[in-house]
């Protein structure tokens, strides 16, 4: 069975079952009764057939289970590591084939980086010059300090930068680069977030000079304290007032002030080890409050207790659906 590129993914339950069968097959040969059960499962419904077609596509690309999941998936039954691998594998099947290249690229960027964080993790680094870098969830950076520069390359994710004065004989610029451009700190504290095709900059103290990747000879843009902007590799976006909560994630909080639930879920998903889906009927519901990002299940429970929202979870909370009560 072929998987059509523009076809919607099979339903959640079928994907979970296909992920489980893929893991079971990776553990070794099936018995005759298990193989009969597997064959019956594949043929029982069109959704299961489509889900298994995606599993076959993944097998053809990797020759089996993704290496990053293999060791945790082949753990003892019902262990947290195995359930985590099952949840991630179901997500991979959901994005195939369109999202495969993006997932594979993200995996390679993360694992080859100098410093990285997993989904839901934060990490603070103190660099050789005393500057501090805080990595947000699912972030990867490279650090290059030499005689001419102090350079941070943001591969993926989001960082908060607190620069320190350079006491070397020849003061070196402090630079942060993304795919869209290069930022030079002018004695400052700021956040940088790598989006799909843009970079988001919010300056909390001092100022930052921005040069575009495809327009290095153009006039740079200087963003001052309390300002923010998004920019692509060729154009600057509008400069606006920075959200006062731009750096609150370093304290483990996600702030909402009459925020659309759809926008809130987009942010929360960055910290959740799994998938959070939202019924369009409540997408425009406005919410407010301070929510912990280190415990996304607690945040979801807070929403359910405060607003007319029903939260249902599967795969030990890896797959979550928010719907109206």
TrEMBL record:
Q: Which residues form the FecR N-terminal domain?
A: 16-56
Q: Where is the FecR protein domain?
A: 114-209
Q: Which residues form a coiled coil?
A: none
Q: Which Pfam families does this entry report, sorted A to Z?
A: DUF4880 (PF16220), FecR (PF04773)
Q: What is this protein called?
A: FecR family protein
């Amino acid at each position: 069975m072929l998987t059509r590129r523009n076809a919607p993914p099979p339903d959640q339950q079928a994907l979970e079952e296909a992920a489980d069968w893929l893991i079971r097959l990776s553990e070794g040969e099936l018995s005759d009764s298990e193989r009969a059960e597997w064959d019956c499962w594949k043929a029982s419904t069109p959704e299961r057939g489509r889900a298994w077609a995606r599993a076959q596509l993944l097998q053809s690309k990797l020759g089996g289970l993704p290496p990053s999941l293999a060791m945790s998936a082949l753990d003892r039954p019902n262990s947290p590591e195995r359930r985590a691998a099952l949840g991630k594998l179901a997500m991979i099947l959901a994005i195939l084939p369109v999202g495969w290249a993006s997932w594979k690229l993200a995996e390679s960027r993360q694992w080859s980086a100098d410093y990285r964080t997993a989904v839901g993790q934060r990490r603070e680094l103190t660099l050789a010059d005393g500057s501090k870098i805080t990595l947000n969830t699912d972030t990867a950076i490279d650090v290059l300090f030499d005689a001419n520069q102090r350079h941070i390359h943001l591969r993926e994710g989001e960082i908060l930068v607190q620069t320190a004065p350079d006491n070397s004989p020849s003061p070196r610029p402090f630079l942060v680069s993304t795919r869209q451009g290069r930022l030079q700190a002018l004695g400052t504290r700021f956040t940088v977030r790598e989006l799909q095709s843009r970079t988001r900059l919010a300056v909390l103290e001092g100022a930052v000079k921005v040069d575009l990747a495809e327009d290095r000879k153009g006039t740079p843009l200087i963003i001052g304290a309390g300002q923010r902007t998004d920019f692509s590799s060729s154009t600057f976006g509008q400069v606006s007032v920075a959200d006062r909560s731009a750096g609150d994630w370093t304290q483990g909080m996600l702030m909402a002030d009459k925020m659309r639930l759809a926008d809130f879920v987009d942010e929360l998903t960055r910290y959740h080890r799994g998938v959070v889906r939202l019924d369009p009927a409540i997408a425009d519901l406005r919410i407010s409050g301070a929510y912990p990002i280190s415990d996304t299940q607690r945040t979801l429970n807070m929403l359910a207790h405060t607003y007319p929202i029903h939260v249902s979870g599967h795969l030990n909370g890896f797959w979550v659906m928010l719907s109206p009560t």
